[in-house]
Amino acid sequence: MSADQIGFALLILGLFLLVGKVIRVKVGFVQRLFLPSSIIAGVLALLLGPQVLGALAEQAGYDGFSEAGIFTPEMLDVWAALPGLLISIVFATLFLGKDIPTPKRAATLVGPQLSLGFALGSGMYVVGLLVAVLILVPFFSSSPMMGALLEIGFEGGHGTAAGMRGVMEELGFEDGADLALGLATVGLLAGIIIGIALINWGVRSGKTELLKGDVKASVDEQKGLFAKDENYPAGEMTTRPASIEPLSLHVAIVAVAILIGWVILEALRWVEAQTYGGEDAAFELFTFVPLFPLALLGGVILQLIAKKMGAAHLVDHQIMLRIQGLALDFLILSALATLSLSAIGSNFAPFVILAIVGIAFNVAIFVIFAPRIIPRYWFERGIGDFGQSMGVTATGLILMRITDPESESPAFEAFGYKQLVFEPIFGGGLVTAAAIPLIYATGPYPLLIAMTIMFALSIGLGLWFFGRNKKEAAEAEEAVEAT
Hints:
- This protein is mostly helical.
- The chain has a domain at 89-224 and 347-482.
- Helices cover 72% and strands 0% of the residues.
- It contains 21 helices and no strands.
- Helix 5 (73-92) runs parallel beside helix 12, helix 15 packs parallel to helix 20 (444-467) and helix 19 (430-442) runs antiparallel to helix 20 (444-467).
């Protein structure tokens, strides 16, 4: 494959991303669903590719589009390889440029938020693995690794699902990544639709403390545009362009963070090979762990080094978010464009069962446990975790922004603190990365037992410690905010 073919494939991705944005601006029902332009573009590319247009052309006896749709096989090969590369960029940028909160304030706000987040993350493994061992394996001859797809697709989202493709294929679970991508799409749509419905229910029933009246978003918000008089800077200039372009500096920092993660992963694989691993080993873990969770760790290490050296001010988190957003947009687009609909079709019943169970579980946790665990602004804070557990962090942020448009509650702050602990574990963290290899090596039951214990501890601690002392916890939060 030539450099020209790779470059042209990237140019076409950019064209489709722009078309997706135009559709978001022009089509009303797409706006009301708050669908990201990358997903719109990805679905459009999927329809024009070999899975839909190519299949229809083949049935009609026309060979012109049957192989790759309107694209070329080389273009699809490039797109298929992109998610596994871009996911490391997404995770490396998560904590770069972030301020470390005071321990007292973080601990006060993060406790109940972590209980809820860990209950959602571990609980999806519990219900997913139970569905797998009780229904999918005995009745549909599915792989027990299906039980991990709920957390990968719903909590991890499109990026994590696409990033796990290589691991799943290496372990013989070829349909896993496509099913996880399908679940991520279902989760994202359901997260927005059900999330808006829950907010309307919360307003009508008086459960929201800030939002009163009908839930409406402005036309510009629905289109995903800023008004002419709005000014939201993309980031701050931390270096003089005469020495180095600030964006170039931040890209270089991301590259170093990924390299640190790569060194750590290679070291872990070497230790594993020298101890219990090797060709005849019955169990190997780090051989199948992807790079992206270690890239996240590399970013944390680099941020701590920068802070220790007094150079943290040179790393702007807003610019890191722009780099992350660029990588995520192209990741989602390329992943959806190369999605295998045949994999979903051949596993349609298990796919539907997992999706229904996952949605029901997330709604139940939010409605039943969030008000009993979070002491203040439970709806405003809990809806963010609900949205994140249904697809991507952006879904949770959208729902929080609707319930708390002026950031009057500690919802965004508490959510951010929770992410510092939550992201390295679930939603693409170490547990997510290790789940498929663990199930492959040991079967579903060890992971099921471990996640059941974590789920019980999360719910128990939330109800017993935070829920039982909601008044004291609320007063503690108010006291911390006042200082």
